[in-house]
Each structure stands twice: as C-alpha cells, then as structure tokens.
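re: that chain from earlier
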Amino acid sequence: MESLYWIWVIVSSAVALPFGIALLGGWAPEWIRKHSSAGGIRVQGIATLIMYVALLVPVAVELSSMDQADAEFFMPLFLFLGIGLMYGAKLCDRFNSKAEQAAWLARQDSPQEPENGQES
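^ sequence. v structure.
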C-alpha cells in the first residue's frame, strides 16, 4: 500500500509542481495569457502550488503515521485557499478588463483635438 502513496507523490509532483512553478514565473500557455494579466498568472501559480501541497497532505499523514484529524483539517484548508486564490485572480482580471474597456470607450467618444494647435 505504501508504494501507492509514493506513486501518488511522483505523479502529482510531475504534473502540478512544474505547472505551478511555470505560472509563478510568468510562463503560461497562450490560452491562459489571452484571458489573464501577468499578476493574475502569478497568483494562479501560487494557488496551484497550494493545491499541490493539499494533494500531499493525505500522503504525508499516512506515511508519517500522524493522526487522521490533521488531514481532515489541513487538506480542506489548503484546497479552499487555493480555489479562493484562483477565483480571486479571475475576478480581478475580469474587473480590470471591464475597466480597460470602459476607458477605451471613453477615449473613443471624446472629440479628437487637432495636433500642434492646427485646425482642420
């Protein structure tokens, strides 16, 4: 049974850890960069690393013979923190994009002043 836990650690480390570090460094696939700001991508990286830790809590509890109540406390705590950070970053990006759209529309609606004081 212990080998199953080690496989869980290896697979979750191979998937979640590099992706979280890449996001934290600002590297992201095109489909993420298109919908997120640079700060939002880094917050998503932090959230991914927190959820990676949440994946390792049950394994750490089983391998170290700790009390099961510790896993029942820490795993949901890390998961909710990671999910909250993800949604917070998305909500911030959404508000920023709406503010940028409103500013762009305001610039389009304002009359253009001639350059160098020349009238046309």
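The two ends are 82 Å apart (CA to CA).
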